[in-house]
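Lecture notes, continued. The same structure-token format from the folding unit now serves as the input rather than the output. Read the line below as a description of shape only.
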């Protein structure tokens, strides 16, 4: 029994790793083709295009992990069904639970590796990739943060901040601070063309600040100062939201964003859903590999291994799209973040369990 389970684990692991490499190289190839269209424009070079694609590989590995796990397990199990190896295993006393356990033993290290890649490798690599693209696309620093046509708006207590844009190196451009009193009467407006974050002071240092003091009457006073220290909860890490999607941020960064948005009384559902998706995503490896078990025996007479691989690819694509759909619906309808994150996994796990139960009943 142990020999059969080791054989099954080895075959699934080898096939899954092979699919990982094939899928990542496939998507990297199309990423490179897309980047080659910009070579020669501004400061964009061939080497920077290759560097950008290479830096995006960890994100691709993270995104494709469930699909590669599904197709890899499906390929091995379908081959065993076609050659009657799986039937011989069952006749030899290997139960469906033991086969599932062998599959989960392969899924466990892949899930751990997926989590580590998504938490510690993909986010910094993705930020560096976006910085490389921004720096080489123009001679000056590319703007990465501009949420609206008027810039990025941020609220903290009685201060409303408007930032026209932020560069890839986290330099604020076009900063305006509107300060109000408790009765929400405008007290003063501070304007600065540039702001740099100081790690020592935990604050933004604004250069060439023009301050307009609003009096009780119609009189206003305007004065300038070479610098101003803006102490705020806004950190450079928050600006990473504009470089990469929330789903690709680290858990700590997502948590910090949620806290800051809550303090400023802004919606947090998108980041809460992204946080739960980040925690749940590695578990999808188990769901997808378990789903391969019943689908490997689906229509064994009408379709061969190729048909099952095609079905696996379509299932993986459906799972990916379903995850995005529930994330968007969760934000639009203000659903529970945990529900939005778990819904695709629950749907596919229910489907796999129902198919396994049906096949066992036959």
């Amino acid at each position: 029994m142990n020999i059969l389970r080791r054989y099954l684990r080895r075959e699934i692991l080898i096939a899954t790793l092979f699919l990982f490499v094939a899928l990542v190289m496939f998507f990297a190839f199309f990423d490179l083709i897309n980047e080659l269209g910009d070579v020669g424009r501004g400061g964009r070079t061939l080497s920077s295009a290759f560097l950008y694609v290479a830096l995006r590989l960890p994100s691709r590995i993270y995104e494709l992990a469930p699909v590669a796990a599904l197709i890899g397990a499906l390929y091995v199990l379908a081959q065993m069904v076609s050659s009657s190896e799986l039937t011989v295993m069952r006749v030899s006393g290997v139960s469906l639970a033991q086969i599932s356990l062998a599959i989960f033993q392969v899924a466990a290290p892949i899930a751990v590796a997926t989590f580590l890649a998504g938490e510690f490798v993909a986010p910094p690599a993705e930020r560096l990739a976006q910085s490389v693209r921004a720096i080489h696309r123009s001679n000056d620093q590319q703007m990465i943060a501009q949420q609206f046509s008027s810039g990025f708006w941020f609220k903290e207590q009685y201060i409303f901040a408007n930032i026209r844009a932020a560069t890839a190196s986290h330099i604020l451009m076009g900063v305006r601070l509107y300060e109000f009193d408790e009765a929400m009467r405008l007290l003063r407006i501070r304007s600065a063309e540039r702001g740099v974050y100081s790690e020592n002071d935990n604050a933004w240092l604004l250069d060439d600040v023009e301050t307009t003091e609003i009096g009780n009457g119609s009189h206003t006073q305007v004065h300038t100062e070479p610098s101003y220290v803006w102490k705020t909860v806004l950190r450079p890490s928050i600006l990473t939201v504009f470089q990469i999607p929330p789903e690709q941020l680290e858990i700590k960064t997502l948590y910090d964003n949620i806290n800051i948005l809550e303090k400023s009384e802004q919606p947090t559902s998108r980041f809460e859903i992204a946080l739960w998706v980040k925690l749940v995503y590695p578990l999808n490896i188990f769901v997808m590999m378990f789903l391969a078990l019943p689908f490997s025996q689906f229509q064994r007479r009408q379709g061969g291994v190729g048909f099952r691989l095609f079905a696996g690819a379509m299932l993986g694509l459906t799972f990916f799209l379903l995850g995005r759909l529930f994330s968007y619906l969760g934000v639009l309808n203000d659903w529970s973040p945990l529900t939005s994150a778990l819904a695709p996994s629950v749907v596919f796990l229910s489907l796999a369990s129902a198919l396994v139960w049906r096949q066992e009943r036959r």
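Point for the exam: Confidence is low (pLDDT under 50) at residues 138-148.
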